[in-house]
Specification:
Keywords: Membrane, Signal, Transmembrane, Transmembrane helix
Number of helices: 6
Helix content: over 70%
Shape: elongated
Radius of gyration: 30 Å
Protein name: Membrane protein
Pfam families: DUF2231
Strand content: under 5%
Distance between the termini: 85 Å
Order of helices and strands: HHHHHH
InterPro entries: DUF2231_TM
């Protein structure tokens, strides 16, 4: 009987030893993970402290060269102009005022120029984006491209309503539809752009942006 118990004990001894080794391994692995997290947090604190110290010596108003990209500074102009142009064109459907046509043309034309500059010359290059950020950026670029085309077409149509087809309500409705689509597209592009910055963290202090000047 004693021999039988001894044999069973010797059989289970390696299993008990393996369990202890696994427990020791998991314990060490957890300690290494905690150390890695602490190291990352420490690096973030050091970087934040360094940025804070560097910013203390800077003037309150930043220079244009201090911005990693000029896209956010330019893109607000087409957003405002195209939205305003769409609203004015809606009013024009009812009043058909000649002077208002010129204001709408200015909004559409300047909105197109602003959208083109923001979407082509001041469009930032990105790197190391997450999969979600890539999808959001893709949607942003699609709506930005639609904004450029729609605003250009709206400006051309508005020129036609001023010089060729004057005070034609049917034609003004067509202008409104195109300009309204441009306003919708630029608002959607702005939405996805805000999502990139404030949710995905792309852009603040140059994060995920390539440093290659202010151009495209």
């Amino acid at each position: 009987m004693k021999k039988t118990v001894l044999i069973f004990f010797l059989m289970f001894l390696p299993i008990l030893g393996g369990a202890q080794d696994d427990e020791h391994y998991h314990h060490n692995h957890e300690e290494e993970t905690i150390q890695q997290v602490d190291t990352i947090d420490l690096e973030k604190e050091v970087n934040a402290s360094t940025k804070l110290e560097n910013n203390q010596d800077k003037p309150v108003k930043a220079k244009l060269d201090d911005f990693p990209n000029l896209h956010p500074l330019i893109v607000h102009f087409p957003i405002v102009l195209l939205l305003l142009g769409g609203i004015l064109q809606l009013i024009q459907l009812f009043v058909l005022k000649r002077n208002l046509d010129w204001v709408i043309l200015l909004c559409a034309g300047a909105g197109f120029i602003g959208a083109y500059v923001a979407g082509v010359y001041a469009h930032p290059h990105t790197h190391d984006l997450s999969e979600m950020a890539k999808k959001v950026l893709g949607q942003h670029d699609i709506y930005a491209e639609w904004t450029i085309y729609a605003s250009a077409l709206a400006a051309v149509l508005k020129l036609g309503s001023i010089f060729l087809i004057k005070k034609n309500r049917i034609f003004e409705i067509a202008v409104f539809l195109v300009l309204g689509f441009a306003a919708y597209s630029v608002s959607e592009a702005g939405h996805y752009g805000s999502q990139l910055v404030y949710i995905e963290g792309v852009g603040p202090q140059g994060d995920y942006l390539e440093s290659e000047g202010h151009g495209h």
